[in-house]
Design goal:
There is one protein chain. With 524 residues, the protein is an alpha+beta fold. Helices cover 28% and strands 28% of the residues. It folds into three domains: 3-270, Rossmann fold; 277-375, P-loop containing nucleotide triphosphate hydrolases (Rossmann fold, 3-Layer(aba) Sandwich), CATH 3.40.50; 392-519, Peptide chain release factor 3, domain III (Alpha-Beta Plaits). Strand 17 and strand 18 form a beta hairpin. Residues 44-57 and 64-68 have low confidence and may be disordered. The chain binds guanosine-5',3'-tetraphosphate. Guanosine-5',3'-tetraphosphate (G4P) binds at residues 17, 19-25, 44, 47, 88, 139-140, 142-143, 253-255.
Length: 524
Amino acid sequence: MGFKQEIQRRRTFGIVSHPDAGKTTLTEKLLLFGGAIRVAGAVKNNKIKKGATSDFMEIERQRGISVATSVMGFEYNGYKVNILDTPGHQDFQEDTFRTLTAVDSVIIVIDAAKGVEPQTEKLMNVCRMRKTPVIVFVNKLDRPAQDSFTLMDEIEKQLKIKVRPLSWPINSGPDFKGVYSIFNKSLNLFNPSIQEIEKGIHFEDIASPELENHIKDDAQVLREELELVEGVYQEFEIGEYLKGELAPVFFGSALYNFGVQELLDAFVKIAPTPQPSQTEERVITPDENKFSGFIFKIHANIDPNHRSRIAFVKVCSGRFERNKVYKHVRSGKTVRISSPTTFMASQKEIVEEAFPGDIVGLPDTGNFIIGDTVTDGENIHFKGLPSFSPELFRYIENADPMKSKQLAKGIDQLMDEGVAQLFTSQFNGRKIIGTVGQLQFEVIQYRLEHEYGAKCRFESIQMHKACWIECEDTSELKEFKSRKHQKMATDKRGRDVFMADSAFILQMAQDEFKNVKFHFTSEF
Ligand code: G4P
């Protein structure tokens, strides 16, 4: 197969949802279709169960398992599908945000009874920011659901995106009869007693009395609702979807494997092929001959005795080849990867080559950090791996003075992996760790001790947000920094950050310094 065809057949995407909406279940069913797993339940373990707080063994175990499922590639009808796993636990949201920089599209799973939940909104904000095309899968129709039109309105309003149903449910809960696929013009009947895939009945003309034979009294309601759908929503326009302006919506029940195949069939047809990527220097298109890629995730501690890590690189252009010499742009050094891995059919295996859209695992001993670019020689830097303002802050202190080197190294490497963010106070030099969840503090403390032999202590600190600041007026910037000296810090990349104690203080600063821009993500 030619290089261009290899690119054209790739679909790299992520599935996101509010915890419990059914992301894991849907992922698993997609893998079943792709033949990547044989039995249900294989992916199930890949999540830190809700409510887990300090179950370190669990975290460790999960981390072991999730290497294999970080990227799940499979072949389906001539397409190469790559699913990038995103952590379900909200304390690992930042990981999810970063993974979203490596996908070309997203499927958002929504619980049909609960509708749009807070984490769905946050994740959608990231997709919107990056103009990532999204498909919505409304799940759990086998349970009593909200009215479908109400749900459509809610999705449109809360996710701030136009929607277009491409399938439509016939009731829900105990009365759930199935879905009519607007996309394929077929009727798919739900049978809760079997978990096999029912083949859809082709049904071009829903006015036909034949419909009554299948769904009896519900036929007329379906006709009326479909008429309303056609009246209310404009035709599905693939261009709008690809621009991230319109979300096609599908309905189903992941648990019963229902509506999943329609979703997958439509997905491979409409979802984008690997897209161009923006670097600081120029736009890189996938079909360029020379290899380039960036590291969006580092997975540590595969073997605790060897401090081994895998750096996940997204191939953005060209053909990646094993044993070829590439350039690690940040250090300027060359690297030769003798055992790169891919993740097919949930097996990790050594690969000889990979194409744009693919994810390759590079064994790493601490040379790579998140956001690094690897190329065939060109000096480029991929953009688009923002850090978000953390929500929780603590001072980190050394609890074992004999181990200060180990502590410094441990903190440094954990931050490179993106476990949390580190800020150094410009006032007193103290180190502040910022995270999005409580769990990370525990993970840091545990890993520092077990992997680096260092002990740390956290001290609470009154802090609301970290804002990256920018100001064209140099004298105003100087004035701001001197007035706020006690609250200024430096991030890992040496940039100025204002650590606001409270929303009120932040507002005051914004009112007073009109020309200073306060950013809540590190990329602006
Ligand atoms: P998540 O990854 O988004 O957090 O959700 P997950 O797939 O783990 O699903 C959360 C719960 O919802 C699971 O039940 C799962 O079985 C159930 N579920 C997922 N899809 C459907 C569906 O289409 N219909 C129904 N009725 N339930 C669904 P659980 O009891 O929390 O876990 P388990 O004991 O079944 O593993």
